[in-house]
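Running co-folding for LLP.
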Amino acid sequence: MILRGTMRRNEKGHLEIGGCDAVELTRRFGPPLYVLDEEDVRARCRASRAAMAEYAPGGMVTYAGKALLCTAMCRLMDEEGLGLDVVSGGELYTALSADFPAERLIFHGNNKSPAELEAALRAGVGLIVVDNEVELAILIELARAMAKRPRILLRLTPGVEAHTHHYIRTGQQDSKFGLDIQNGQARRAVRQVLAAETLALVGFHCHIGSQILDLEGFVLAARIMMDFALAMREEYGFVAEIIDLGGGLGIRYTAADQPPSIDDYMRAIAGVIATVAEGADYPRPRLIVEPGRSIVGEAGVTLYTVGTSKEVSGIRRYVAVDGGMAANPRVALYQAVYEATLAERAGEEGRDVVTIAGKCCESGDILIWDAPLPTPKFGEILAVFSTGAYNYSMASNYNRLPRPALVSCYRGEADLFVARETYPDLLRQDRFPSRLRRVTAAAAGIN
Ligand code: LLP
């Protein structure tokens, strides 16, 4: 068992997160439960900012909200001095509702609607990352109509194949994201923006993928972005103030994952930018990075209760928990591999091999295939590690399962970031057309 952040095995032999006993947390808030180690999140924010200050002074670390976003997370990121990357009207609304300073927001997305762009312009977000030619045309007009002049980055596809699952790989040429450097699309967009009075081009953005465990792809992307910037100076006399290399730094899901440290990552990419800039007598652009997973991933644990089990003799033993692909779709989607422990006997060596299944009506609803664990007993609590990123944010109500609560543990205090959904929450948006209304149901308040 790898203990991440502040996690430890306490005197009772229970798993403890942020000074809170996981068994008591489950009793108090009910299972399944997303738990966040707030000290660890804060430490990762600080380490990222410190590395930025050391290797790329003047740069900005911007948390990618898609990994885990709610209003309390926005406050936390604000307190830690990070920027925030939002990718939809809903994320923008969440950030603004939490009073996150608009000037530290970066607005992303490959198909922002005119209404979303208008909301971003009204709020005065710090940067809009323009993804494609259609969006560029819409934004030029919208800014004119609203008498605004937003600062924008152009999202480029550097043509880098990141070594990760193909669903979360985005920097390669054949991608739905960004303006292609190789076929001249990016160059044309630069010319168009420079000619448009209503937009202020300040630099370039790329994001090559996610859960990347070696630095090679990042270094290559940084190099390609700088080469493009130099070419644009050559061609149009444009000098980029900002280079944004997106997110993507991988984390440890299992002991087999060996991600680079945030320090090594920052040193490597900042080094490329500095070296290329110096060699070409180019004013060193400010670096932006957008880590999501590496800020919250390892700081999250999900607590489930063990329920039924089934032995398929000679093949495997299934043990089911009270959550599943609705609370964590990553196994079904990306064949993600997780590690777990039993919260009441944390770290007890696994004598058996069990497959942890969810409770959704699908054979593919498995949380961990062949986990080395002592055979879990009915009612025990199972803690699955490294679930801070892309679990709550990707959760659904499949099978009408209410989404679990999200609790943040900090120095022995546990506080709700998001309350558990209730059955009435599941009905909140349901409507009956008049032909299906019933008088008796109206009396019960569900009409
Ligand atoms: N910036 C941009 C423009 C992005 O598209 C992303 C992630 C990030 C930053 C943050 O990347 P991170 O540091 O978290 O790797 N649902 C998938 C991951 C999708 C990532 C999408 N974009 C998963 O569960 O693995």
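Result summary
Residues 64, 66-67, 85, 108, 168, 207, 210-211, 246-249, 290-294, 330, 334, 389-390, 394 surround LLP (CB under 6 Å).
The longest strand covers residues 300-312.
Job closed.
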